[in-house]
């Protein structure tokens, strides 16, 4: 994965310095810098205290071949979180970059041959939250660990085996029963 401005990513906090959290976007890329004040309503006193291995959902602010990428957990123009911030609980699953891109597409923009119904089918039977990062990470949080694993496994299987619409429905029926 190569960071590009405006990409939504799921990052893991590696360590903290005076003004930044140093976050891993993928295991083999340089750390991205997340300023301590790049959160909604953050001040020196009210900034979030993130421990190592915490997960954050963030947007790439700047990326260059010569500098470490910078990410933020709030919209720069409004100062609002817009769904970004620390991800508490749940599990992270790795998916291909293509699958991450497909998951982020609005439903109307998906072509018939690449359409995904796996999440819609799961949502009819289970309650869960997801966050998708362009860096190939999928965060899932459901009521139980079993349900969380079922959602993550369904998306990974759909990705790995390139399932069509009917095969996705069969997979969901098999995993949820």
Structure notes:
There is one protein chain. With 177 residues, the protein is of the alpha+beta class. 25% of the residues lie in helices and 27% in strands. The chain is built from four helices and nine strands; from the N terminus they run E-E-E-E-E-E-E-H-H-E-E-H-H. The chain has helices spanning 97-104, 118-125, 145-161, 165-176, and strands spanning 8-16, 20-24, 32-35, 55-62, 70-72, 85-87, 91-94, 128-133, 137-142. Strands 1, 2, 3, 4, 5 and 6 form a six-stranded antiparallel beta sheet that branches. A hairpin with a 3-residue loop joins strand 8 (128-133) and strand 9 (137-142).
Helix-strand pattern: EEEEEEEHHEEHH
In DSSP terms, counting alpha (H) and pi (I) runs of 4 or more, how many helices? 4
Fraction of helical residues: 25-40%
Are there runs of 5+ residues with pLDDT below 50, and where?
none
Put the structure in a nutshell:
This protein is α+β, with helices and mostly antiparallel strands and 177 residues long. The chain is 25% helix and 27% strand.
List keywords for this structure.
177 residues; alpha+beta; six-stranded antiparallel sheet; 4 helices
What's the structural blueprint in terms of helices and strands?
Elements: E1 8-16, E2 20-24, E3 32-35, E4 55-62, E5 70-72, E6 85-87, E7 91-94, H1 97-104, H2 118-125, E8 128-133, E9 137-142, H3 145-161, H4 165-176
Antiparallel strand pairs: 1-2, 1-4, 2-3, 4-5, 4-6, 7-9, 8-9
Helix pairs in contact: 2-4, 3-4
């Amino acid at each position: 994965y190569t960071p590009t401005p405006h990409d939504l990513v799921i990052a893991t906090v590696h360590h903290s310095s005076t003004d930044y959290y140093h976050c891993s976007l993928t295991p083999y890329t340089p750390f991205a810098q997340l300023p301590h004040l790049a959160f909604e309503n953050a001040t020196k006193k009210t900034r979030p205290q993130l421990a190592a291995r915490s997960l954050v959902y963030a947007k790439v602010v700047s990326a260059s071949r010569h500098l470490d990428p910078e990410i933020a957990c709030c919209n720069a123009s409004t100062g609002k979180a817009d769904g970004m911030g620390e991800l508490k609980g749940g599990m992270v699953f790795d998916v291909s970059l293509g699958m991450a891109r497909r998951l982020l597409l609005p439903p109307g923009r998906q072509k018939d041959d690449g359409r995904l119904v796996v999440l819609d089918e799961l949502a009819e039977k289970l309650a869960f939250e997801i966050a998708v990062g362009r860096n190939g990470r999928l965060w899932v949080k459901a009521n139980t660990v079993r349900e969380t694993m079922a959602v993550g496994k369904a998306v990974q299987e759909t990705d790995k085996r390139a399932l069509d619409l009917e095969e996705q429905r069969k997979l969901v029926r098999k995993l949820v029963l």
